[in-house]
Amino acid sequence: MSLPIVDAVPSGAPRGRLHRYSLRVSVLEQCQLDCRYCRPGSTTSATEKARWLRADEHARLAPLLLQRGVAKVRFTGGEPTLRTDLVDVVAAWRDAAVAADIALPLALTTNGLRLPPLLPSLRAAGLTSVTIHLDTLRKDRIVALMGDGADVDKALDATRAAVDVGFAVKWNAVVQKGRNDDELADMLAVAHDLGVEVRFIELMNTGSAQGYVKETFISGRDILAKLAATATVQPVARRQPSDPAALFRAGDVVFGVIASDTEPFCGDCDRLRLSADGRVRGCLYQPGGLPLGAALRAGADDDGVLALLDSALDDKRSHHPLAPQPRVPFSMADVGG
Ligand code: SAM
């Protein structure tokens, strides 16, 4: 069985129809873990707290981004729960959505370690869904894969707690050949017991851990073949064309496969990214980004910020590259994965 192929838009093709965006908001670059494919070789040093957009700056930017079509927000990093004011940042976006009379899904991607005590206040602040990242169920593997402090039980407890609080919950597992690709069926079974959907993620070559990625890369197609060897797997329609996950069903379990490098979904990509210091970009692979945060701090008014934002949106609409080899190596933790 093969993954449904999504046609990618050739470089330079116009994408004028794009007018609703899914925004990934990185709230910091730091993480207490050390996933082998993420931190090693990071080309950006950890930023100072002072560079992170404060909650009041999120409150200034959120209405402008909503005005320009942001229809979904995911808070990520780094590890977002390390921000002591994460709840205030989430609430800033919720308040902007309420003021604009928009139903705005607010999601969080986290390793879950610090999540449980925050769950009630995140819910009260308007968060609607949570994705927990856990690459193995094996206690004898987790530290080697995700670094000191990683803990299977804590991640699974956080997943259960998030479900109990009423969040829609997903589970991200980055599949690595020879490291965790013998656990896929177990992960499906555990996801089923937890009542969450697992997303099996193909390793992306962001250029910062090339040796490791080369050694452990397994394509989405091969991930699916491994699962199909253990169960009858059938394709399920994507819920949204812009959903990066191809969905499948094994019995009554639905799961996703995200194959960003081998089956790029650039043609349907509606993502924008806001870095921790407020740079906006239309593509993960685009270096730099337009500095909305710096413009705010330099005293720009709303029109000034909107002018910068519009040029980022024009760029995404008019010229979107095929997922290329990264010209500038980066870590997902720096850009906001
Ligand atoms: N700390 C949070 C976490 O662990 O999920 C949020 C940030 S993390 C960068 C977000 C997601 O990016 C995780 O699911 C992580 O595994 C994924 N990620 C990081 N580097 C990746 C890579 N090279 N290829 C595929 N996924 C990657």
Q: Which hetero ligands occur in this complex?
A: S-adenosylmethionine
Radius of gyration: 19 Å
Q: How much of the sequence is in beta strands?
A: 15-25%
Strand order of the largest sheet: 7-8-9-6-5-4-3-2-1-10-11-12
Number of strands: 12
Number of helices: 11
| Secondary-structure content class | alpha/beta
- Which stretches are low in confidence, meaning pLDDT under 50 for 5 or more residues running? 1-15
Principal-axis shape equals globular
Describe the structure.
- Helix content is 32%, strand content 18%.
- It is α/β, with parallel strands linked by helices and 337 residues long.
- The longest helix is centred in the C-terminal third of the chain and has 17 residues, at 302-318.
- The protein binds S-adenosylmethionine (SAM).
Descriptive key words:
12 strands; 12-stranded mixed β-sheet; 337 residues; single chain; binds S-adenosylmethionine; globular; disordered N terminus; alpha/beta
How are the secondary structure elements laid out?
Blueprint (H helix, E strand, L loop, with lengths): L20 E6 L28 H13 L2 E7 L9 H15 L5 E5 L8 H6 L4 E5 L8 H5 L5 H14 L2 E8 L8 H11 L2 E6 L7 H7 L3 H9 L4 E4 L9 E5 L2 E6 L12 E4 L4 E3 L8 E2 H6 L4 H17 L13 H4 L2
Parallel strand pairs: 1-2, 1-10, 2-3, 3-4, 4-5, 5-6, 6-9
Antiparallel strand pairs: 7-8, 8-9, 10-11, 11-12
Helix pairs in contact: 1-2, 1-10
The structure holds S-adenosylmethionine.
S-adenosylmethionine binds next to strand 3, strand 5 and helix 11.
Describe what is shown at a glance.
The chain has 337 residues and is α/β, with parallel strands linked by helices.
